[in-house]
Amino acid sequence: MVEIYSTIDLLKARLIKSLLEDNGIKCILADENMALIYGTSIPFGGIKILVQESEEEKARMLISSIKPSSAKE
């Protein structure tokens, strides 16, 4: 699996996960529980969204359609 996005915002991570899954892309939110423990000061780079390598390009295009800047915060 590859990381395609990271954020300290749990809501944003869950919205992106929902967008990807609604478009048939399976994904994992790594370190999601850290956000629940640490709030906005998450160590280790925040919540990471991971997808299969074969879905990476499609996932990045979907994310860029809602956020035209870089794929990391």
General description of the model:
The model has no long low-confidence stretch (mean pLDDT 84). 42% of the residues lie in helices and 21% in strands. It is built from 3 helices and 3 strands, in the order βαβαβα. It has helices at 10-22, 32-38, 56-66, and strands at 2-7, 27-30, 47-51. It is α+β, with helices and mostly antiparallel strands and 73 residues long. It has a 3-stranded antiparallel beta sheet with strand order 1-3-2. The protein has a single domain (2-66), classed as UreE, C-terminal domain (Alpha-Beta Plaits). The radius of gyration is 11 Å and the shape is globular.
Task: Describe the SSE topology.
Layout: E1 2-7, H1 10-22, E2 27-30, H2 32-38, E3 47-51, H3 56-66
Antiparallel strand pairs: 1-3, 2-3
